[in-house]
Each structure stands twice: as structure tokens, then as C-alpha cells.
TrEMBL record:
Protein name: Aspartate/glutamate leucyltransferase
Domain (N-end rule aminoacyl transferase C-terminal) ranges: 105-226
N-end aminoacyl transferase N-terminal domain span: 15-85
Chemical reaction(s) catalysed: N-terminal L-glutamyl-[protein] + L-leucyl-tRNA(Leu) = N-terminal L-leucyl-L-glutamyl-[protein] + tRNA(Leu) + H(+); N-terminal L-aspartyl-[protein] + L-leucyl-tRNA(Leu) = N-terminal L-leucyl-L-aspartyl-[protein] + tRNA(Leu) + H(+)
Role this protein plays: Functions in the N-end rule pathway of protein degradation where it conjugates Leu from its aminoacyl-tRNA to the N-termini of proteins containing an N-terminal aspartate or glutamate.
Localization terms from the record: Cytoplasm
Length: 235
């Protein structure tokens, strides 16, 4: 166990919330100079922290506790009918776990994804530097699962291996293949990958009840949520 009490935290100034219109957000970050390793990263993830590039952060809003960390207990997860259909539709895809996505091919897919699906987000407009920083390999725990259809790259899931699970960092995919539901498929693949690795959870980041973009996370049941510093299971 790491001595978490010695870690320094830094808070941002209040800024417009990216998820709830009219709300202000404050984020706390672990000291960028801290000696972070895989063990510490895992412990902080259990406490609700997430990774963005080389930074570990957690929402810390004075008047709002809407952001709730959530994770899937993979050995108890049972796909619903829609998820089973999604897995079947994508049986033809070739899945590969790779060590690096710093290529023109992978960046082109990411750039297209941001430009077509997230023009209203913090990562628009995309740049190569932003891409490499945001989806970098940190502390030797990051891997990339790519999806190919007849050798054509159609999706990438970025995930980090923690002590007890996989953290789903980000997924980007071809927007012209909507019937495949590649975002859903990416989570299903990470659930199976966690099982194969003997891990207990897939961490999905934050869920906000009032945010439509995050509603999909409650479709994976059972789901555990971090409430009052305890993981509570929702069936």
C-alpha cells in the first residue's frame, strides 16, 4: 500500500462544466511531480481517480456531486439482448492487442472520430500532439485493442491494466459503421479481456444521471458505483 496521505493535490479554478449546462466544475489533480507507478495508480483508481495523459484527476465540485465513478464486475456481468446482438454482429472483426498507436493510420481514425462525433467537446479540434499526449502509455500499464474489418482499421480501445481491473481510458472508431455499435462492442471486448487476465473489473469512469452522453454506462449490469467512498452494487 502507498502512503496516500503524503500526496499533494492541486485544484483548478472553477470553470464551465463539460457535462451539465449552467454548472461550474472544479477538478483536483495529483501533483504532476509525484512518483506515480502502477501500484499507486491502481489505488487511486479505487478511490475514483481517472487518467488523462500523464495526469490523475477527480471531480471536486463544491455544490455538486453528480459525477459518480462506476465499474463493471466482469465475472457477474450478463449481457442483455442488445449487447448479445452487438457481439454477434461483430464476430467477423479481427481483434489485436498492440503496444503502440503512434501511426498515421491510427491518428487518421482518431481525427475523423473527433471531427464527426465530438465537435462540441474539449478535444476539438484534434491535433497530433494532443492525440499523443492524451492517449500516451503511462507507467507501463497501457495497451491498445484494435478492431479491423478485412484489414481496415475501424476502431481502437485504449485501456490501462490496474491491480484489480482494466480502466477503459478512451475508445474511437469509424463513424460510418453505426449499425455495428462499435462503442458497445469495445466495452464487451474489454470485459472479456479482463476475464482472460484474471481481473475483477472494468472501470468506466464517471456517470452523471442528468447527462445523456453517459446514460449508456447503466446498460451494463450489475454495475458498481462509488458512493460515500464505498463501492455499491446496482443490479
Amino acid at each position: 500500500m502507498s502512503d496516500l496521505s503524503s500526496l499533494k493535490l492541486f485544484a483548478t479554478a472553477p470553470h464551465p462544466c463539460s457535462y451539465l449546462e449552467g454548472e461550474e466544475a472544479t477538478t483536483v489533480f495529483i501533483d504532476p511531480q509525484a512518483d506515480v507507478n502502477a501500484e499507486l495508480y491502481s489505488e487511486l483508481s479505487e478511490l475514483g481517480f481517472r487518467r488523462s495523459g500523464g495526469h490523475l484527476y477527480r471531480p471536486h465540485c463544491v455544490n455538486c456531486q453528480a459525477c459518480i465513478s462506476c465499474r463493471i464486475p466482469v465475472n457477474q456481468f450478463r449481457p442483455n439482448r442488445s449487447q448479445r446482438r452487438c457481439a454477434k454482429r461483430n464476430q467477423d472483426l479481427d481483434l489485436r492487442v498492440i503496444d503502440d498507436i503512434n501511426t498515421d493510420e491510427h491518428y487518421a481514425l482518431y481525427e475523423h472520430y473527433i471531427n464527426t462525433r465530438h465537435r462540441d467537446g474539449d478535444m476539438y479540434p484534434p491535433t497530433r500532439e494532443q492525440y499523443e499526449t492524451f492517449l500516451s502509455r503511462e507507467w507501463g500499464v497501457t495497451c491498445y485493442i484494435e478492431y479491423r474489418c478485412e484489414e481496415k482499421l475501424v476502431g481502437v480501445a485504449v485501456c490501462d491494466k490496474l491491480n484489480d481491473g482494466l480502466s477503459a481510458v478512451y475508445t474511437f472508431f469509424a463513424g460510418d459503421l453505426a449499425p455495428r455499435s462499435l462503442g458497445v462492442f469495445a466495452i464487451l471486448v474489454q470485459i472479456e479481456q479482463a476475464k482472460r487476465m484474471g481481473l475483477s473489473y472494468v472501470y468506466l469512469g464517471y456517470w452523471i444521471r442528468e447527462c445523456r452522453k453517459m446514460a449508456y454506462k447503466t446498460q451494463y449490469r450489475p454495475l458498481q458505483m462509488l458512493v460515500n467512498k464505498r463501492w455499491v452494487q446496482i443490479k
